[in-house]
């Protein structure tokens, strides 16, 4: 993990800078960190949605798909914080695409809006979708400013937005 300090508290953060895993010091507001933070936010909201599904509508297929997505997002964020590292693999994109193709025919007719009769997970999944779309835009900006092999990361976030919409429809159907 490079030369990143092991202390939990360091003074460099107090002046608006942080360490990347390679030991380099960067400003906290650079596009790379903005994208990483937005991906972390997305992962948190997906975790919240997953907890709501576990409580209200325990759908094992959806819960497992969201668990894998959370792992993928952790990997994407980690790769993004390491300049030059590939942003995910074709395998992860293909897995997500296959899930979408499997679920799509059954869910396309359902509404995309949320209403008061819906389980809380519907709203959480729609919020996650909005954050996902913002994450994709932030990643595009980060890759323009600081190129990195990222086509699979972008493809993944683009598909994830579709997946989250389908997942919200699945919750409405149940």
Automatic annotation (TrEMBL):
It is an enzyme of class 2 (transferase). Pathway: Cofactor biosynthesis; adenosylcobalamin biosynthesis; adenosylcobalamin from cob(II)yrinate a,c-diamide: step 2/7. It catalyses: 2 cob(II)yrinate a,c diamide + reduced [electron-transfer flavoprotein] + 2 ATP = 2 adenosylcob(III)yrinate a,c-diamide + 2 triphosphate + oxidized [electron-transfer flavoprotein] + 3 H(+); 2 cob(II)alamin + reduced [electron-transfer flavoprotein] + 2 ATP = 2 adenosylcob(III)alamin + 2 triphosphate + oxidized [electron-transfer flavoprotein] + 3 H(+). Residues 13-170 form the Cobalamin adenosyltransferase-like domain. Pfam families: Cob_adeno_trans (PF01923). Its EC number is 2.5.1.17. InterPro entries: CblAdoTrfase-like, CblAdoTrfase-like_sf, PduO-typ. Keywords: ATP-binding, Cobalamin biosynthesis, Nucleotide-binding, Transferase. Transmembrane segments: none annotated. PANTHER family: CORRINOID ADENOSYLTRANSFERASE (PTHR12213), CORRINOID ADENOSYLTRANSFERASE MMAB (PTHR12213:SF0). This is Corrinoid adenosyltransferase.
